[in-house]
Amino acid sequence: MITIKSEREIELMRMAGMLVSEMHQFIKPYIKEGISTYELDQLCEKFILEHDAVPTCKGFEGYPATLCTSINQVVVHGIPHKQDVLKNGDIITIDVVIGYKGYQGDAAWTYAVGEVSEEKKYLMEHTEKALYAGIEEVKPGNHIGDISYAVERYAEAHHLGVVRELCGHGIGREMHEDPEVPNFGTPHTGPLLKPGMVICIEPMLTYGKRDVFLLNDEWTIITQDGSDAAHFEHTVLVTEDGYEILTPRLD
Ligand code: MF3
Ligand code: CO
Fold first, then answer.
1. Domain assignment of residue 1, yes or no
2. Is residue 250 part of a domain?
3. Residue 218 class from Cβ within 10 Å (0-12 exposed, 13-18 middle, 19+ buried)?
4. Residue 217: inside a domain, yes or no?
5. Which regions of the chain are under pLDDT 50?
C-alpha cells in the first residue's frame, strides 16, 4: 500500500530529512585517510542521538550499525569495522536512515578520500547525475517507470553498469514502504505518482559489469568483477507540481 502523507507528516519528514543532510555535512570533514569506518559510525551515532533522533538501521533485521559504509567495489550495506581504514584514493558511500518523531529520512552519497582517479571521479559524477535524471521525472501524473527509465537511460548513455538486485522504495513511518523504485524500467508503467507520496531514489552504478554478489556476512554486496561502485540516494516528496528533495545537500 502506498501512503499519502498529511501536511503534518510531511513537516516531520522534512525534519528527519534535514537531520540526514546535517549528519552528512557533519561527517564529511572526517572522511580522510587513516580513519576507520567504525569511527565514522560511532561519530554519526553520537550525532544522531544528540539530536533526539534514532539510527534506524541499527537493529533492522539484525543490522549491527548506524551507517552503511561501502568502500570501492562494495556496492551497498558495507558494515563498519575497526580494521577497515580509509586510504588515499578510496571512494566510500555513507548511507544512513534517521528516524525523527516516528518518521524516516534516508540518503546516501559517495565521497572521495583524498585524491581519487579520473575513473572514480567519472563514476561518482555520473551516478549523482543519474539520480537527478530520475528526480526530474517526479511529478503528479508520471509513473514510477518514468523515474526508472530515466535513471537507466542516463547510466547507459554513460556506459555505467546498473545494479538491478536492489532498488529504491517508498518511505514514511517505515524506512521501506511501497512502492519499489527500480533503477531500470519502462516509461508510463508502474504506480502513478500523486502529491504527498514520499520515495527514495537510489541508483547504484558500477564502472564495470552490473553483476553483484553477497558476502558471507549476509549484508555486504560487492561487484562480481571487482569494479568500483557508487551510490547516491535522496528522499523525495511528490508535490502538486513536481518534487521537493527532503534530504538536500548542504555543501
Ligand atoms: N539506505 C538503505 C536503504 O535504502 C538502508 C538499508 S540498510 C539496513 O535501503 F541495514 F538497514 F538494512
Ligand atoms: Co534507501
1. no
2. no
3. exposed
4. yes
5. none
Mutate to test the pocket of ligand 1, among 66, 77, 169 (most ligand atoms within 8 A of CB): 77
In a domain? residue 2: no
For residue range 1-19, what is the model confidence (pLDDT) as tens digits? 999 999 999 999 999 999 9
Give the DSSP H or E segment for 154. helix 144-157
With residue 124 as reference, give the H or E element that holds it: helix 118-135
Give the count of domains, the chain. 1
Distance 45 CA to ligand 1 centre (A): 15
**Ligand 1 pocket by Cβ (under 6 Å):** 57, 60, 63, 68, 77, 95, 97, 106, 108, 200, 202
For residue 114, give the CATH number of its domain: 3.90.230.10
77 CA: nearest ligand 1 atom: 7
Has this prediction a pTM greater than 0.90? yes
Query: Which residue, among 234, 250, 227, 224, has the nearest Cα to 201 in the 3D structure?
Result: 234
Distance of CA 169 from the midpoint of ligand 2 (Å): 6
Range of the domain at 165: 7-245
Q: What distance in angstroms lies between residue 76's CA and the mean position of ligand 1's atoms?
A: 8
